[in-house]
Design a protein that fits this description.
The complex is a heterodimer of chains A (254) and B (176). Helices cover 22% and strands 39% of the residues of chain A. By secondary structure, chain A is an alpha+beta fold. In chain A, β7 and β8 (178-184) form a beta hairpin. Helix content of chain B is 74%, strand content 0%. Chain B starts with a helix and ends with a helix. The chains are: A alpha+beta (254), B mainly alpha (176). The interface between A and B is large, with 39 and 58 residues.
Chain lengths: 254, 176
Amino acid sequence: MNDSFRARLADLAAQAEPADLYTRVLTGSRRRSRRRTTAVLAAAAVLSGGLVAGTVLVSRSVPPPVTTPSASAGPVTATQVPSGSPPAGVSPAPAVDARNATFDVPAMAQCAAGRRTFVDGTERDGPYNSLTVAELSPPIRADLDGLPGDELVVLVSCRIEGIFTRKQLLALTVDGGALRPLGFMLDSRTFDFFPWIDPAQVSVSGDVVTVRIEGYGNDDGAERITPQERGFAYRDGAFVQISGPTERPSPLPR
Amino acid sequence: MTASRAEEFEAYVRARTPALLRAAYLLTGDQHLAEDLVNDALIRTHQAWPRLWDGSPEAYTRKIMYHLQISWWRRRRRSPERLTDVPPEPARTARVDEQAQAVTRLVLQDALSRLGARQRAVLVLRYFEDLSESEVAELLGVTVGTVKSQSAKALARLRVIAPHLLDSPTSDRKLR
């Protein structure tokens, strides 16, 4: 039977007719290269425009990330503090740009652990399984481990073979101008079903980071679910889930 | 790309396309889709050729091809044309064994088309490409456990769709 099934597969595969794809491949490759070049040029044009606009905005005021100062265990305040006038008792957080920084990233999916350098959010000279990092919207900076120094929460994406993407939330301790990984937030019960994480749907209250999940990827595609919120906090040296459902969500009917 | 590397790529494409097409045909169940799949995988291989040519380009191409197939399937989210339960009337002049073989092909093609993309990929990799579970896991970027579960689900589904393709329940154990 084993051999018979293999033989049937081989017999079916033999129905494929030979084709010479060389010319078609070269044409497609050149077209793809042209598209990439165009996209890079367009992105550069957008970025240069953004830089000009950004410079104008920065000269007026700098909206800080949502912060929970180390000394406070209360809820997060999202007040935008004008530059140069921090509230009494709260020291201004040093500016850290995780999208343009070098820091250690723990192993994630097919992306190996290691020290990574990000330029504009993308790993410089990354391998084919590549990493990107993005700040949340609005950025989240809070004291998550109870020790001096705040943590910055970023969204890390591991792109596998240019096809699949796995996303995790990474807490980075801001140590002066440097970043040290505190740990990934989603535990295996949540990460293993590849939840969709919207950077705009992550919030922090005290030391609890809450993630809203509206869908997930599975072996055969993407599934939408009834949205659910899961809360994670740093306890005894690791992030654990402390609120929300823990089981794998059921997909909504298609 | 230098001239010699370009020649190597041309030789690689011409030598390996037939084998890639056979696997792609099993994955897509259609000659034109198979050609498109191999074409796209080879385009990506061409773009990566300067860093691949002295390594294992075919492993790279196959990896891309299997991932692309799953990606395409997700985008399309529709099955190709389904066959009816009744196989087409065979020509009277055909020999009986050829007729039976043709029917088996159609049934197998239909059964494969009803599987999820990853399940199909796992079956083709395991039983057509003869890769081990760990090799399949590495190629698809999943765990060995996922390969085992997908393989078991695929075989169970095949047993429902076309029981005669899998002769007996014990055969699954052999297939694992």
